[in-house]
């Protein structure tokens, strides 16, 4: 379990993290979301004792990180996959970590095998692709067989097979009763992986809730209907006291409507339906809805592509 209590971090005038209080629980994957610059990495660094909080407290299974003997046995983290001595082989990199944390050397082979790097164990890390580097970082996180795992953008650079693998790995680690805390900007991936979400914006807590509840609270659920007898169906639905939204595409939308009731009404009046489908917004839509006001960097969507990367960006 990771417990944050009033955690804050200020860099000069800049408040990166503001009074965050939440608990990351064992047995499930908890997703950590927020727009660019929201304070996710700063929060994760403070959890690992790499940054000192300006105020507040973080506890790892009830203790401060600095008080953990052999910390890799308690919490494993992938923060920056490039934070590896490039001249060292994957095996030697992990061996150094193992020896400085009282972990048996045999564990190095086990984790190399788990992440699929056994064949390149003796190769220098500087020759690794982005995806191989991510796998090496994940091997380091798993090395101490910790009860708590933290991953900052773990699927970065992984191919579809690698993404599938890390998704299943995180779920199986959680199913073993471990605490799994993961940040990602890939909403579709997060929707498939996390059961619970913590969302921050401009350093502040915006949501701490289950994935299903988050989507329900921050999006609109409706039923979409297509029919060649649009006017007749509109009359029938209005007659039944059902409010209908007419869309430009010709479809009809009914908020909070029960598809069964609409189908029965259509059948009673012998109206042909081509579509009757409940719609729920995606995690991405719900996230954009919730964080719209706390996004710091916006791109112009109505202009042509900028000549130089970065030209079209402005601070909102
Ligand atoms: N060492 C630092 N010195 C000054 N400001 C910093 C420092 N580290 C982070 N910040 C600022 O703190 C804020 C939060 O940054 P952080 O990297 O934690 O956000 P993030 O949510 O991880 O962003 P991203 O999704 O873009 O990785 C940003 O405004 C950033 O510029």
Structure description:
- The structure is a single chain.
- The chain is α/β, with parallel strands linked by helices.
- It folds into 2 domains: 2-217, 3-Layer(aba) Sandwich (Rossmann fold), CATH 3.40.50.300; 220-289, Alpha-Beta Plaits, CATH 3.30.70.
- It is 31% helix and 26% strand.
- The chain is built from 10 helices and 15 strands.
- The strands form 4 sheets. It has a 6-stranded mixed β-sheet with strand order 5-6-7-3-8-9, sandwiched between helices. Strands 11-12-10-13 form a 4-stranded antiparallel β-sheet, with helices on one face. A 3-stranded antiparallel β-sheet has the order 2-1-4, covered by helices on one side.
- Helix 3 crosses helix 4.
- 35% of the residues are buried.
- Residues 302-316 have low confidence and may be disordered.
- The structure holds adenosine-5'-triphosphate.
- Keywords: ATP-binding, Nucleotide-binding, Transport.
- InterPro entries: AAA+_ATPase (IPR003593), ABC_transporter-like_ATP-bd (IPR003439), P-loop_NTPase (IPR027417).
- GO terms for molecular function: ATP binding; ATP hydrolysis activity.
């Amino acid at each position: 379990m990771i417990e944050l209590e009033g955690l804050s971090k200020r860099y000069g005038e800049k408040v990166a993290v503001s009074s965050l209080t939440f608990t990351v629980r064992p047995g499930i994957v908890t997703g950590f979301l927020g727009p660019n610059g929201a304070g996710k990495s700063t929060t994760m660094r403070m959890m690992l004792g790499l940054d000192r909080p300006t105020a507040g407290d973080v506890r790892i299974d009830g203790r401060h990180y600095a008080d953990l003997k052999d910390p890799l046995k308690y919490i494993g983290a992938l923060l920056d996959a490039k934070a590896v001595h490039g001249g060292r082989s994957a095996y030697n990199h992990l061996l150094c970590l193992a020896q400085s944390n009282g972990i048996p050397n045999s564990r190095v082979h086990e984790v190399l095998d788990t992440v699929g790097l056994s064949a390149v164990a003796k190769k220098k890390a500087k020759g690794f692709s982005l995806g191989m580097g991510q796998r090496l970082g994940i091997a380091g996180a798993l090395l101490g067989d910790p009860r708590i795992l933290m991953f900052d953008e773990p699927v970065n650079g992984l191919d579809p097979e690698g993404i599938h693998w890390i998704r299943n790995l995180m779920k199986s680690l959680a199913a073993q009763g471990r605490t799994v805390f993961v940040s990602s900007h890939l909403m579709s991936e997060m929707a498939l992986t996390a059961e619970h979400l913590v969302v921050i914006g401009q350093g502040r807590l915006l949501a701490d809730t289950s994935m299903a509840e988050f989507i329900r609270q921050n999006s609109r659920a409706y039923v979409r209907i297509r029919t060649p007898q649009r006017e007749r169906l509109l009359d029938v639905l209005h007659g039944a006291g059902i409010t209908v939204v007419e869309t430009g595409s010709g479809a009809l939308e009914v908020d909070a409507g029960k598809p069964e009731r609409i189908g029965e009404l259509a059948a009673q009046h012998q109206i042909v339906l081509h579509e009757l489908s409940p719609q729920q917004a995606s995690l991405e839509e719900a996230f954009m809805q919730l964080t719209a006001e706390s996004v710091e960097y916006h791109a112009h969507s109505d202009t042509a592509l900028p000549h130089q990367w970065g030209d079209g960006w402005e601070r909102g």
